[in-house]
Amino acid sequence: MSATETPNATRISPYWRSLDDLEQSPEFQQFVKREFPQQAEDIPEGVSRRRWMQIMGASFALAGAQGCRWQTEKIVPFAERPEGYVPGASTKFATSIEWGGASRHLLVTCYDGRPIKVEGNPEHPASRGAAEAFSQAATLSLYDPDRQSTVLQRSGGKKISREAETGWAEFEKFLGEQTERLAAAGGAGLGLLMPPSTSATIATMLGKIAAAMPQARLYQHSAVSRTNELAGAQLAFGKPVRTHYKLAGTRVVAAFDSDLLHDRPDSLTIARDWGDARDVDAEGFDPDKMVRLYSVESQFTATGSVADHRLAVKSSQIPAVLAELRDAIAHAGDGSHGKDHEQGHEEAHAEGEHPVAPTREEFIAVLAEDLAAAKGESVVAIGAHQPAEAHALAHEINALLQNAGKTVVYTDEPSGDVEFGTIDGLVGDMAARKIDTLLILGGNPAFDAPAELAFGDELQKVANTVHLSPYDDETSRQCTWSLPETHPFEAWSDAAAWDGTPSVGQPLIEPLLNGRSAIEVLSLLTGDASTKPQDLVREAVLGEVEEKAWKQFLHDGFVADSAAAPISVTAKQGIEPSSSADADGLEVVFRPSPQVYDGRFANNGWLQETPEFITKLTWDNAAVVSPTTAKTLGATQGEMVRLSHPELDAEIDLPVFVVPGTADDTIAVALGYGRTAAGRVGGYVAEPGGKSKYREEVVAERGNWGMKLGGGIPLLSVNAAPVGQNVYPFRTSKHTDIVPGVTSIALGKKYLLATTQDHFSIDEVGLEMAERRAGDLVREGTIEDYKDHADFAKHVGHHVPDVELWDELSYDDNRAWGMAIDLNKCLGCNACVVACTSENNVPVVGKDQVSRGREMHWIRIDRYFHGPREAPQVAYQPLACQQCETAPCEQVCPVAATVHSDEGLNDMVYNRCIGTRYCANNCPFKVRRFNFFSYTSRFREANNELLRLVNNPEVTLRSRGVMEKCTYCTQRISAARIKSKTDGRAVPGKIEDGEIVTACQQACPTQAITFGDLKDEKSKVAAKHASPRSYGMLDGLRLKPRTQFLARIRNPHPKLAKYYPKPGGHHGGGHGAGGHGEGDHGHQDEKHKDAEHSA
Amino acid sequence: MVLGGVAGGGAYAAGVLGYLTWPEVMNVGYAPEQPVPFSHKLHAGELKMDCRYCHNTVDKTAHAAVPSTNVCANCHSGTYDDGQTKYTAVHTNSIKLLPVRQSQTSGDPIEWEKIHDLGDYVYFNHAIHVNQGVSCAVCHGRIDTMDVVHQNKPLTMSWCIECHRDPEPRMRPLDEVTNLAWVAPAGDELDPHRQLMRETYGDGENEIKASTNCSTCHR
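ok -> structure tokens follow
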């Protein structure tokens, strides 16, 4: 069946998880036949097998214990223990890291002097404790053995690796000579290319360089830039201005191609405000004033997926939509604008059997009306990649709505004293031979610069090129000097938050691999080489201050109350979008990958394996298209298409991934994949004439043949195939993020996409049941439902009498741990998934294993679609072990390896598990994970010693044949319990509410997760469980899960509500689609009736 | 007959093997040679140094840290080249203390043999035990009488659990925890002892709850 035909008539639930699922494709049928789609003896094959071995090596390890009297261990105490240092106690440090000009403010846990866990800095105003996936994966990058460890020199096709001890000295000598020569010419010939930075230290140093060498040229480049945003501010206000969206107290938020809850530099702050605004149970919550989120976008963003109303529009049409909206708002007073459309559409809708999406006109009319009614209480947000005119229009609309200064606050865009050129300018200067010495401090321009510049080739023409980078990457390969850069956790730095708060980046560990920071390299140019980087940072950020202020800065991580002051600006009115954008034809839209960003995290296995929030795709990028566009392309899910453009030489081949809700004629593609010099995880292809670094994997690749030939000793070095497709060759200065006029050919080849959404279906029957139950599993209602019956969620699903079938444990005199997850706040952003991976030593298994359904994540975020496939809505449900009180897994374990604790935890005892997998078979939530291979064994290898350090020593590393799962971070519970009895508190043994924070809870930007003691009536989690919205999954099975979900409350506009069918399985019998919006009373009756039927 | 002999021999061999690999047989009495022949009998027993003078993190964290070299050197520093002694100096020229002086000079640690070695999947925490009135002697025996430290208790799971199920008889007042020579009131006075422990460690929030949950030790 093709992607656009009517959904299968036998389908019952209005929920569906993917189009495969919706269509019951043969591949899908095959996949679900077996719970574990491939048997354990199916050893990974071919390339994917090698990749798996590589990843195993690159992503986990264990210092093991074997033998009878196990291997003896040594105790190696310090010769002189540092003062205040307690072996085995962890310490937390506030620090900051930044990339692409955006800073992240963190609290890093160090164990025995090594950073093992990253969390947000709870005191920092720009973090408030949350951290997104990228930051949390920073520890894995820190211990990445593929990082560059020596100074390298390249000349005439030869690579010379300098000695670790002398390499830097040789470079210093070289740079000293060059600087002397260049300084004599006032810096003429010197070029310096850096990614944008908010660091005051770097700004000061660049200022020094500009003053000392006025002829030197400074350039800035980053693949994901704010150029359009600043140009838009220039257009609207006549100067670059920074925009802050304040969601607290807003009533209407409209995001235009903007992932404001997830992808902005200040998204953590916005997401927190959003979470608070959607907290239905909060004190003083007024259902009539609940914030309503509209999203107009070409592809699903996290923001769009949680929006109350979403309109799929091509990215190139956004400026036109904004102009229409502005005009509609201006006319909103007379009430004539939207009415016609609405009525006209209603008639059309009545004829159709299936619900359809609102038209663009209707959507804009309603949005305009809603915005106009919420003057000063609304936000119109715009995506950074949209053209300047779209930004200017958004500013204009915000002014029109009187939001400026209230919900949309402007501050001055901080700018240093130095002028930066662009990368286009740099290439021009290189071609004109104006640069003979180029220092590239950070970034990877040879990989991600606009294609037409041929940056890598131009680089070859410059006599002296220096690249400072954590990896010997694509750019390093084109340079004469390649220098190892420190990880942000290894060096002094500073960064300013989005609101301007100066923040410190302090080293948490000595440089592991001989690296130096950009500040240290710059100090060679500024003559500060003899000053400690610490002092440079202190001087630049704080100036002359007392030691106490500096210590406070290091302790807090930031300077309190130092946010930039708001300014008052007047937006230019009457901006007209240029009409050049043609409405027809395919267009490619690029966005930074939520996994690897612009490519810099390509060698990070945690991020590569995190399922993308909407496609649930791992280890790849794809051409994400709507079902209609897939038809246009002539390709189905997983088939390759070749994209080309008349103005470009490049062609890119991408597998098609069909996501309903993507704007038609849009091909959404994630940047950052296809790296060729990332490392063994992200892809490594040997340089021409060179050999790959990765030798040990050859045995795995060649299988038995290689074993025999080499006698177990690898003979050949091998490449690591790039992950995904590199799409930068398709990106030019003219069309940075939106490429119109694309042509495509279907190649008719299949490509393996490792997507996780359909995993853990038991069989066809199980799948069908899961589908039918989807509305029970993830419960939603509208704010109207909530006003009518706040406990509507409790009436969904089967209810069984509360009869004990056996003597159940009593928790009367003990704690009872429980969790509540508010579906109304979840953005599906994956912060919790990476947090859990880091905290619990969850192994990375690789694409091959993921495609077999063997991913190991303890918490997964289920994503459901419902509603019409033209405009589906998305529901997320983070699912970890539910800690059922009557846990089905416990009943079937033959060796009591999973048993109940007296605090209600479903304990998992790895050392007792014999791997029968009965428990996983019997788990109705499919949250148990089995170690099909010894994913951790490679840690024992000498070349992975560094990688071992990433593991949390408080959690066992599991070996092959062992089941594992979430236990509410039982190590954190133990730690709190011990602390409560040893720290001399007033009531020993009393654990305060909120003292234990699970890793997922800690990371959540919207605070959707609550954890605590259910026996403590005053605890937050007890209050959440008492909420009328709370429900336990699969209540018909009487599992009594300790994790309760709080039903999602959507807030549709009354005029658009009719397009959204009431979700939920309680509708039964195939009429799940269409037109249930009207008449909520009728709905309630129907619900009860159906419940009776199905009981 | 022959068959019976083979069967009997096999059973005997299995029995011997089983006995020899029994954790209690294998581990109790394990007393490896240490780089420095440090005598606990002398220091803790005769000189009555408190356990926590050296193992100073035992009541704070999971690890009862083995002291760093400079703790040894507080008493056992060597002499200067001119023969002058540093600090307090005891046995400045003892050959047995050579590794201590070397470590102190070079900064390289002394590598001690680990005796009480639990499985990597066992998360034992010293602080919680010591703070709840479990003496060092309960798990380590009378260290203060050992010239060479050996493993005195089996440290098997069943042995741990035994105490976790009924901890009171093995507990003592907090100020006697590092007094290894302390003796509990004799047999018929066990009940008063239990009573004392309950009063000492309270009931309610702080009652003695030696958890027997799997996740208490395995996580």
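The first strand of chain B starts at residue 112 and ends at 113.
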